[in-house]
Amino acid sequence: MTLAASMQWDLLPPLTVRCSHALACGRLEPAYEIAGDAFDYSIDERYLHSAIFDAMGHGVESTLMTTLAVGAYRHARRADSPLAAAHRATDEAVTAHCMEEAFVTGSIIRLELETGILEWTNAGHPQPLLLRGHQVIGPLACAASLPFGLGGECRAVASEALEPGDSVLFFTDGITEGRSDVGEVFGTDRLADLWSLHTGSGLLPDEILRRLVEAVTGFNAGKLRDDASLLQISWFGPTASHGQAPVP
């Protein structure tokens, strides 16, 4: 590993966390030169907290920006800050360091375990996809704020009432903007079709994400131009037990 790669991997939580109500699963495939992706999640008595980040640039500088964003987010989360406040704290930390000359895109996310209410912010990041009944029914919209580091306000906190068995997929642009040898873009539609296909096959979430990343790297002839990251959040329902929770 390069120094940047080692720093980046040390940021990541376990690839899957689960409780009786919900699950979070992440996957990251680094580009040849590390390009600053990261994700994070944590479960407490009431919420599944999560976030995904994508810093501009490559190498150690990119990883340092991501480390700062993740650290600021974790600090705000541990202080039990509301989502908008956590978003502002993350922006302020990156802005103070980068002086508005660099930025990090991302989303800060919170799922209420008992009700299935998913809330998230969007700092110039791709819109997530909602899967229901093994079919992607479309993207979930959130008014985009400026990327972290550009000194903007949190313009919106979006909310979606999930149904038992629903999953939401957050991703970085390294997933959808990769190009084949002939210049074809991987795209959101291809991602949605593959996610539906693999979910309908009854695979576990970590295997589904592994196959999605494998499809992306294969499409890019095995060499990514940007990090490619996925974060899946699944809600089992308000009365799910550990032994009965469905696998999305």
Description of the molecule:
This protein is of the alpha+beta class. The chain has one domain: Phosphatase 2c, domain 1 (4-Layer Sandwich). It is 31% helix and 27% strand. It has a six-stranded antiparallel beta sheet with strand order 1-2-11-10-7-8. A five-stranded antiparallel beta sheet has the order 3-4-5-6-9. Helix 1 runs parallel beside helix 2, helix 2 runs antiparallel to helix 3 and helix 5 packs antiparallel against helix 6. The two termini are 33 Å apart. 46% of the residues are buried. The C terminus is likely disordered.
Features:
248 residues, alpha+beta, Phosphatase 2c, domain 1, six-stranded antiparallel beta sheet, five-stranded antiparallel beta sheet, 6 helices, 11 strands, 31% helix, globular
| Total domain modules | 1
Secondary structure tally, helices: 6
Flag low-confidence runs. Answer: 241-247
Give me the secondary-structure category.
Answer: alpha+beta
Q: Total strand count, please?
A: 11
Using the coordinates above, name the CATH class: Alpha Beta
Which oligomerization state do the chains in this entry correspond to?
Answer: single chain
Supply Rg: 17 Å
Which superfamily, in CATH terms, is the homologous superfamily?
Answer: PPM-type phosphatase domain
Helix percentage: 25-40%
According to CATH, the fold-level topology is Phosphatase 2c, domain 1
Beta strand %: 25-35%
